[in-house]
Design goal:
- This protein has about 290 residues and is an all-alpha fold.
- It has one domain.
- Helix content is about 80%, strand content about 0%.
- The chain has twelve helices and no strands.
- The protein has helices at about 1-30, 40-60, 70-90, 95-100, 105-115, 125-140, 150-175, 180-200, 210-235, 235-245, 245-260, 265-285.
- The longest helix has about 30 residues, at about 1-30.
- It is globular and about 50 Å long.
- The relative contact order is 0.23.
Length: about 290
C-alpha cells in the first residue's frame, strides 16, 4: 500500500509539473501568435524541442538509435497530426471551444484502454475523468455557432488522436524507451509535419523578442513532454489522463495574472471541479483495489 501511495504521489507530481510547463508554453504561444502563424508555431515547437534535445544527446553522449522505431512512428504521427488539427480548430473556433474539444482526449484514452484493450479499472477513475471534463466546460464555457462544423470536427479529431498518442507514449514506456528519446522523435515528427504547412502558409524572420518567445514555445514544450512522458511511463495511465486537466487551470491562472482576465464564479467552480477530479484520481489510484496499471 505504501509503495502504491508513494508511486501515485510521484506520478501526480510529474503531471503537475507538466501542467505548469504546458501552461507556460501556452503563454508563449499566445504572445507569439501576434507575430507568427499557426503553421510557424507548430514547426518551431517541434524543431526547437528537437534541437535542444539533440544538443543534450550530443553533450552527454547518448544514442538516438532505437529498436522500437515503429512505435515512435505511431506516436509521432498521431501526436503531430493531433497538434495540427488542434491549431486548425483554434483558427476556426473560439479558443475556449477548441481547448475543450481537445481536452476530450482523456475520455477517449479511457475508452481505448477499457473497451479497446479490455483492461479493468476502478469506477472512481471514470468519475474523476467526467468531473474533470465538466470542470473544463464550466471554466471555459465553450460555444459553437452556425458554420463552425469543420472546426468542431478538427477539435474532436485532435482529442481522439491525442488519446492515441498518449496510449503510444504508455506503450513506449513499457518497452523501457527513455523519455528523452520518445520526446525527441515526437519533436522531429512535429517539425516535419509543420515544415510543409509553414512553407505553403509563409514564414517570418523572428526578431529578438519573437526568437525568445519561440524558444519558450520549444523549450517549455520539450520539458513538459518529458515530465508527461515520465508520468505515463511509470504510473497509472488514467491517473495521468485525469491530472492532464490541470493544464487548463494553470492556463486560466496565467490569464488572471498576466492579462488581468476576470473569471466569473462559474469558472472558479470549474477550477474547483478539476482540482477535485485530480485529488479523486490520485486517491483511487493509491488504493489496492486498483488491480491493473491503468
Amino acid at each position: 500500500m505504501q509503495d502504491s501511495t508513494s508511486g501515485s504521489r510521484l506520478q501526480s507530481l510529474w503531471m503537475v509539473v507538466a501542467g505548469i510547463l504546458f501552461a507556460s508554453m501556452g503563454v508563449c504561444v499566445k504572445l507569439a501568435s501576434a507575430e507568427f502563424s499557426a503553421a510557424e508555431l507548430v514547426f518551431y515547437r517541434g524543431f526547437i524541442s528537437m534541437l535542444l534535445l539533440g544538443m543534450w544527446v550530443v553533450a552527454v553522449g547518448q544514442n538516438l538509435r532505437t529498436p522500437h522505431w515503429r512505435a515512435h512512428i505511431r506516436r509521432g504521427i498521431s501526436g503531430a497530426v493531433s497538434l495540427v488539427l488542434y491549431f486548425l480548430a483554434i483558427a476556426n473556433l473560439p479558443l475556449a471551444t477548441a481547448v475543450t474539444l481537445n481536452y476530450t482526449a482523456p475520455l477517449f484514452l479511457a475508452v481505448i484502454i477499457v473497451f479497446g484493450m479490455r483492461e479493468r479499472t476502478h469506477g472512481g477513475l471514470w468519475l474523476a475523468l467526467l468531473l474533470g471534463m465538466l470542470g473544463i466546460m464550466a471554466l471555459l464555457r465553450p460555444t459553437v455557432q452556425s458554420g463552425q462544423g469543420w472546426g468542431v470536427v478538427c477539435g474532436l479529431s485532435s482529442g481522439v488522436l491525442a488519446a492515441v498518442a498518449y496510449f503510444n507514449v504508455r506503450q513506449l514506456g513499457r518497452l523501457d524507451e527513455p523519455e528523452w528519446r520518445t520526446v525527441f522523435y515526437f519533436s522531429l515528427s512535429s517539425s516535419l509535419f509543420g515544415l510543409p504547412w509553414m512553407a505553403w502558409d509563409g514564414m517570418h524572420t523572428p526578431d529578438l523578442r519573437g526568437g525568445l518567445l519561440l524558444l519558450g514555445v520549444g523549450g517549455f514544450g520539450a520539458l513538459a513532454q518529458l515530465a508527461m512522458t515520465r508520468a505515463y511511463k511509470h504510473g497509472k495511465t488514467l491517473l495521468s489522463a485525469s491530472l492532464a486537466y490541470l493544464t487548463v487551470v494553470f492556463s486560466a491562472l496565467y490569464g488572471v495574472l498576466i492579462w488581468h482576465e476576470v473569471m466569473p464564479m462559474l469558472a472558479w467552480f470549474g477550477m474547483l471541479l478539476i482540482i477535485i477530479s485530480g485529488v479523486l484520481a490520485g486517491w483511487v489510484s493509491s488504493r489496492q483495489v486498483v488491480v491493473t496499471d491503468v
